[in-house]
Every structure is written in structure tokens, then in C-alpha cells.
Amino acid sequence: MKQTFSEMMKAWYRREKEKLAGMTGRERASYIITYYWIWILGIAVAVSFLFYAVYRANFTVNNNWIYGYFVNTMEPGGKGSALWEDFAEFSGYDLSEGNIEFIARAFFDPTKPGGTNNSYYQAFVAVVEAGALDFVTMGEPGLTVIGSSGRLLDLNDERCDAIREKYEDRLVTCIPFDESYSTEPVPIGIDVSDSLLVTKYHLYEESCVLGIAAYSKHLEAVETFLEFILGEG
Fold it and tell me: How far is CA 185 from CA 26, 145, 146, 151, 215, in A?
């Protein structure tokens, strides 16, 4: 009669117990390490992952106050940079309750054929589509292409009334690829070429435009960032 898995495991356990019973302590340790090291490693990895997951869930901050991408700059702008530190102080956000997530190592050029065929752009799109990204900055030509693709918020949206009215003399427009949306230019960016991103932190040398991600959930935080880089605080 064919044994069940439970019966096979019990038989295996009896055999191994008998083997170990006739060994010294050192022989037992050597035997276990020799024949069961893969199992031991697997269990150790599983336990470590469990502790890591529990730690992440209970002792780390998973929410963001704001999430921004600075595209095509060699200057530091991420966590710990002067830009990050100064904005954290300016905004007054409680970093025990949420993160200020700035990414400044992303390089792609949507104006060129094949200019988005890299992991940087794929990561950028993933963050946009996941609804995590709040804003992106880059040169105007590249930003208008991204805006045309529908990945930036139309600043005519009523949620952007305050921002649009405040920065109406800085608006940058594009014509959407999707003609069913509009065949006329729509505002998708704010020119910040004279902002601290250029004059103080030198992330860009000339053209610099900020676009709000299509699914941003933190428009007030984006407005705070604009006030910061434009010296309005």
C-alpha cells in the first residue's frame, strides 16, 4: 500500500533519530551540517525575512509627505542632500509620520528615439502609474513630451485652481497625443528656471520645468515645494 506523506515523514524521522542516537555530539553536529545545510539556510532566510517584514510593518515610516523626481541632473538632490535638508526644514513635515522622497539619479530623454529605453524611465513610469509620484522636474522639451503622453496633470483641473492662478505667468503647455482629450494646448508644467533648483542647488543650468504627476495625492505639498524653490516662504 502506498504511504501517505505523513507516514513517509514519520518513517524518515525514526531513521534519522536512530542514526543520531549512536553518534557523539560532535558527530551529530557534523552530520546535520553536512546533510541539512540547505534546509538550515532556507529556514534562516525565512526567519530573517519574517523579522524584516514585521520590522518594516511596525517600525518604519511607509507614507510619504511628497515624492519628487529630478530628471537628468548630476547634482545631489536625494535624501541627505542640501536640497532635501533645506526643504525638510522649510516644510516642517514630521518625518516620523511621513517621508520626503526625492529621486535625483534618473536619466532619460523622451525627445529622442529610444531615449526612454532604459531602466530609469521604466522606474519613473512605474512610480507614476502606481500613484506614488507627486512631481517631476526636467528641461522643457522633455517635460512637454511626458505631458503629451498623459502622465502629467492638466493644470486646468479644478484641483489645481490655486496653483494655476498663482503661477499663470509661468505655465508651460503641450498638445496631448490623445486628440480625443484635446486638440488645443493644455497647461502641464510650471517654469522654475529661476528657482533655487538652478540658482542655489545647481541641479539644472538653464531650462527647468516642474510638472505634477497625473495621480498625485499631495497637491498641497507640491505647492509648498514650489513656494520653497521660488523663495516665497
Answer: 79, 12, 14, 15, 20
- For 115-132, the pLDDT digits (tens) are 888 899 999 999 999 999
SS3 state of residue 230: coil
Per the CB < 8 A criterion, the answer to whether 139 and 209 are in contact is yes
Query: Which residue ranges of the chain lie beneath pLDDT 70?
Result: 1-3, 5, 7, 9, 12-13, 35-62, 233
Of 197, 68, 220, 227, nearest to 134 by C-alpha is 68
Instruction: Tell me the C-alpha distance between 11 and 17, whole Å.
Output: 10
C-beta separation of 184 from 175 below 8 A: yes
Cα gap 36→211, rounded to integer Å: 56
Among candidates 130, 129, 135, which has minimal Cα distance to 71? 135
Task: List, for residues 52-102, the tens digit of each pLDDT value.
Answer: 444 444 444 469 999 999 999 999 999 999 999 999 999 999 998 999 999
For the entire predicted model, the pTM comes to 0.73
Q: Closest Cα to residue 136, out of 75, 178, 190, 196?
A: 190
Q: What is the DSSP string of 18-74?
A: HHHHTS-HHHHHHHHHHHHHHHHHHHHHHHHHHHHHHHHHHHS---EEEEEEEES--
What is the pairing mode between strands 99-106 and 64-71? parallel
